[in-house]
Amino acid sequence: MRQRQPASGDFLASEKGTQRKKWKGRLPVALIFPNRYALGNSNLGFQLVYALVNSLPGFVCERFFYQDNQPPVSLESGRPLRDFPILLCSLSFEQDFLNLLALFFAGGIEPLAEKRSADTSRFRPGQPLIIGGGVASFINPEPLAPFVDLFVVGEAEPILPQLMDHLADRLNVEEPEALLRGIVREFTGCYVPRFYTMHYGEGGVLTRIEADPEAPARVRRVVLDKSPVAGHSQLLSPEAEFSNLFLTELGRGCSRGCRFCAAGFVYRPPRLWSAESILAGLAERPEDIKRVGLLGMEMARSEDLARIAEYLLGEGCVLSFSSLRADAISDELCGLLAQSRLKSAAIAPDGGSERLRRVINKGISEQDVLCAAEALARAGIHHLKLYFMIGLPTETEDDLAELLLLTDKVRKTLLAVGRETGRMGNITLSVNSFVPKAWTPFQFHGFAPLTTLKNSIKFLRKGVVGMANTRLVVDQPTNAFYQAVLARGDRKVGLALYAMLQGGQNWRQTLQGCGIDPEEYAMRQRGQDEIFPWEIIDHGIDRQYLWAEYQKALKEKFTLACDTAQCKRCGVCHG
Description:
Elements: E1 27-33, H1 37-40, H2 44-55, E2 59-65, E3 86-90, H3 96-106, H4 113-118, E4 129-133, H5 135-139, E5 150-152, H6 160-170, H7 176-186, E6 190-191, E7 196-200, E8 206-211, E9 219-220, E10 245-249, E11 251-252, H8 263-266, E12 271-272, H9 275-282, E13 291-295, H10 302-314, E14 318-320, H11 331-340, E15 344-350, H12 354-359, H13 366-378, E16 383-390, H14 397-421, E17 426-433, H15 450-464, E18 470-474, H16 477-487, H17 491-503, H18 507-513, H19 518-523, E19 537-538, H20 543-554
Helix pairs in contact: 3-17, 10-11, 13-14, 14-15
């Protein structure tokens, strides 16, 4: 990515004081998003941490993004990464792991935590304290354990202000070991990898996680219980992924329990903010910004959504979103969509057949999808994107055939509405390979063989031929395979990433050179009692519940959505 100068348009009114803060008397903190600038500045979690740290007295926080191995400099002041004694790393995707290490190399930062602490008597610029956070790190932090001094496990708001105050008092006076031990003693949700040893047995299978006597056996994540003002955009930029779009969250987590979705489990219990909290977040929108994105629309109560829609319509705002749940499209929402004059929308059936949707616990039917397609078309949506996965547990060619049949039924539904309105619709069929993720019932299931996935794509390509106004887009299965290795990875995989940057070989060659079989990590079925490296984190979920859910999936049995007032199934609400 090209170098950028600080842009005043990045800020939601620099009156808030976050722009061009002076360093004098303040502790500088680098906030790193190891991906593109456009994507990072559209990430609400990244924005919230940026605003939170800059709101703390005695700190100044500046942003860094991955720039294709160029020497990283901060967006705000152009200072190099080595000038910052604290690095906060926001990790959203497994693919960010290698980018983060590359950014360290390019910035003159020793990636290995062991070497950094051996060369310094305290954390300081050039030899910084590296703190990891973000959803990818608390799903499975282990691939980055050799490089990160401290992980903040969970959501930032309940812990980060107190942790930063602790660091302000001690960073410059305590040795690294003493500082980290003090953090582990004082704070829940802080994982220091150097205080844990992973023991492996025959075949390289993890047999035991040994904790330092002063460290907890497992690290319990922290969550935000309530929010008087819903999380909302702090930064706006025309160069962001969603330019000049004001984001507001409706809650966190999801009650649906889709068995493939890590976010639906690690953000438990699901929390829906009150309508008052959401409207308070929306009220922070600058008057000249009219595009609004609502995060978590599938969770919203119909009466709250009606109030939100009424507010947005009264403010002359238009709605933008990534995807909608097919069974959550109400009259109020369609009215707002029509007012917003959106031309495209997305629905994610995920499973291609009714049977597969039972396997993954999606909880929507073919009729839900068709009704949603018709409602969206009547609301003026001309382009519909359908998200599906291939390689799901128990998938057969019959499921793929049903996927094509459903797509054609959606196409005909759009065509029927188009004949009435004079506006023909079109479909993008977006297909990705299923990747088993930690903390889901499918963590026990293996990634599908590449030949199977490639044959499935061929089958779909052939089936789409002849479907007018329908386009098939697929991600390469090899990309998903790499992601699956990282998703199930451990510290050995992390050290292989380090070797990859040093050796210049591709990921498969490097893994094999390090004695790692990528198929063993990604494709091997896991047993009921096998210990997983990511279980150093405690999300409060009973792993036997996850196994039971996996068995229900294989039997195509449905599980009801979470009801936090009554449900005690998974262990989170009574842990």
